[in-house]
Here is the input.
Amino acid sequence: MSGVPRTAWLANIRLHPIKGLDPVSVPEARIGANGGLELDRVWVLFSVDGAWLNGKRTTAIHHIRAEYDPGVSMVTLMVSGGVAKNNKLRPTSFAFPSDYERAAAWFSEYFGQTVIVRHVPEGVPDDGLATGPTIVSTASLQSVCDLFPGVEVNEARERFRTTLEIDGVPAFWEDQLFNKEEKYPVRFKIGEVVFEGSNPCARCPVPPRNPRTGEDLVGFQKKFSEMRRNSLPPSSPAARFDHFYRLATNTRVPFTEQGKLLRVGDALVL
Here is the structure.
C-alpha cells in the first residue's frame, strides 16, 4: 500500500503469561512454536469439567494479581482489593513456568474448587486459526479512553489484552493489516519478523469490566460498537465487519519466523 507512514513502530510488548490474568511489559520477545510469543498464555486454568477458568466464566479472576520478575522466571500471586480482607491466602511466589502444579493448589484454594493448571509451551491464543500476536495502535486505545472518561490508557490496555502495540499512527490504522478477502492476508514486517494480517479481533464480555475489580461499565459494548462504526477509516475493509464490537488485528506468523526476536522500537513496514 502506498502512502503508509514511516513512523509506525512497536511501542509496547505485553505478555499474558497466565491466560486471563495480569500482563507484563517486556522490552523484547521471541516468536514461539505456534506463531505467538514465547511465554504468552502458557499457563491455562481449567476446572474439573475441562472448561477454561477465565474472565468470561467468573469475575472472581479479576481480584487475582500476578506480578512477574524482569525475566518472567518467577510469578507472585496475590488477592487484591476488598476480597483480600476476607481471604486468608497469602502472596505466594512460583517458578515460572515450571511450578504450575503447586500454583494449582493456590488457585484451588482461592476459587474454592479444584483448579487444574496446564503448562502449554506453545501458548493458547484466543483465535485458534490466527495464532500470532494481536496488534493495536496506541491511538486506538486512546480513542477508547476518549469515549469513556475515567478510563486511562493503561486500563484500556488491560481491558483489551492485546500483545503488540504500535505508535506513530492514527487510530484504527491497524485495520489496514487485514484484507477485504480473508484468503488474501496482508503481509508486513515488524523488525525482522514477517506477519500475515488475518482479521479484526472480535471482543468478548471481558473489556466492559474493570480489569482490577470486575465492575461492569454499563453500555460499554453498544457505545464502543457505535464509535467503531462511525469512525471506521476509509482504509478499513468494511466487508470484514459483520459487527463492530471489534478492536485490534489478529495475525498469523509463518513457521520460518520461529525463534526471531521482536524488540520495542522495531519499525512496522507494509
Remarks:
- The chain is about 15% helix and 25% strand.
- The chain has two domains: 9-15+126-269, 43-119.
- Residues 1-5 have pLDDT under 50 and may be disordered.
- The two ends are 7 Å apart (CA to CA).
